[in-house]
From TrEMBL:
TM stretches of this protein: 463-486
Protein's name according to its UniProt entry: Transmembrane protein
Keywords on record: Membrane, Transmembrane, Transmembrane helix
Amino acid sequence: MFILTQFLIVISQEITWTNYSFAFPQFIPLIADKTVFSRTFEEFGQILNISIEYNGDFQESICNFEYQSIVFRQQPQTLIALVSDMQQIDIDNLKTEEIEQGFSEELISYAIIDRDVILLEKNGVVHHLYYNWGPKFTNYTIHQLSIIQDGNENQQILAGNDSYYYVDNNQFIKFIIKNGSLEQNKILNWKKVNDHFKLFVREEHFYLINGIHGIKVYKVQNNILLQVNSFVIEDFQRDFNDVNLNLVDYAVEDDWLYLLDLENGVYRINLISMNIDRKFFIAQKGCKVISIRNKQIILIQQNQLFSVIYEGRIIDDGWMLIRMRTTAKQIIRNTYQFNSYALLISNPINNMYQKGLIDKFTDSQLTKGENIYQMELLGVQEMDKTYAIGIYKYGVAIYFAYEIPAKIICQGKLSQQNRVTIRLNSTNCLNKNQSDFLNYCQNRLDYVFDIHGVLMSPHQEDLYIYLCIVAFSIVVGLFLAIFFIIRRYQMKKEKIDQLRKSRRSLSY
Ligand SMILES: *[C@@H]1O[C@H](CO)[C@@H](O)[C@H](O)[C@H]1NC(C)=O
Ligand SMILES: *[C@@H]1O[C@H](CO)[C@@H](O)[C@H](O)[C@H]1NC(C)=O
Ligand SMILES: *[C@@H]1O[C@H](CO)[C@@H](O)[C@H](O)[C@H]1NC(C)=O
Ligand SMILES: *[C@@H]1O[C@H](CO)[C@@H](O)[C@H](O)[C@H]1NC(C)=O
């Protein structure tokens, strides 16, 4: 069971509110049962809570409100499994044991660049697919990297600008896939890396993030690795107390490399100047996963029996914690952030929840998020506005992933005038102080619905249509009659003219 326990609100006292309301009530004429008023609430960001009040001739609930939501659905027939005899079977329909028997190999790393998807199996098999509009995968090819198989650890693939890279603790290989075949080159000078590490490439620099050993920055020239920079534990120390450092994960946004230190918290390095930002620090111990998107940061602490998810916003020198959730009996292995939603990846139940909502002010139906049963998901990546790719231990699938704004639909059944007051608390509004992250909005929107009954009953309407048809037929008939009379007159006139002409020609 996926149980979410909401914890204390750490920052509730920091929240400030902006008031927003219409200058005048909006006047909306409607025809009962016929016309509908509807609007979306994009400019209000995420709606936290809403109340609708009616003040009219009847206590009729004429408006129907729906909160923002996300559709995240696997496209039928897009799941591609790697083992051929199981290719036609949806992984969801199998039991874990069946999958374990059927899929002896599994994917351990993936890289997506533009629309090229590459997937790595432990034994060096590389799968290459092209994500095509449609949406579908095309040009699927499978290749074998020649790697030294000797207790390889931390096997990863990376995508550079014009080539891919394979790396593990013992070897570093550059490869390209051209005309359906794989060409590989060994990168020399890669020294055996001890302990856990992660490597990523950005603008031809390779960043090795290596637990207690700090960071090394490399360049590759003529297939030789050259170290251009390094940061050791002492470089990050803020005082003599934090002697331990263990960099376990990273995130990159806006030229900043955020480094997650299991022992202390989050540091950052400017990727342009290559300097550690001395002022910046997030004190949050014990986290293993970091994710940042649009300054929204998620840190995940994994424990044996539960995980803790911290959601905050990066501000000048640190963060503001917005929410803290715990998941019972579950290890959240990874997370992927959409604009307003985050997917917490766990096996087999993943949770999609809304970001930016503060429990204390939020309708409880929104705070739990929605569970998505999906086995062995490694990660997700958006490809465009409507589709994302999900990578599993055993294959890939395409998801329809679409964020829907909150919306209201109003329609009256009875003839009346009804003043509807909508109060909503939201993360955004038109006059919000945008430089204050924790400035939320209390909005009041007034609509006056002037609802008139329909002019005719359905029976009258039918009769009316019938009469219209009759009247129309009469008009057409008259028109045709006049046309024929004129035509006949013209023909007669032509005949007389011709007779006259021929008589004249005879007389000559
Ligand atoms: C909005 O938030 C304010 C302040 O917490 C609260 O008093 C009010 O009831 C909320 N309104 C709605 C519609 O939730
Ligand atoms: C996919 O394969 C087709 C046919 O071999 C080829 O014409 C096309 O260029 C390929 N597309 C990509 C993106 O590689
Ligand atoms: C949401 O709004 C309703 C109606 O104003 C109110 O009764 C409720 O307490 C609010 N809930 C939260 C969590 O603010
Ligand atoms: C907007 O918020 C910032 C940061 O909290 C604050 O310094 C500033 O005074 C605010 N501006 C207005 C107009 O309230």
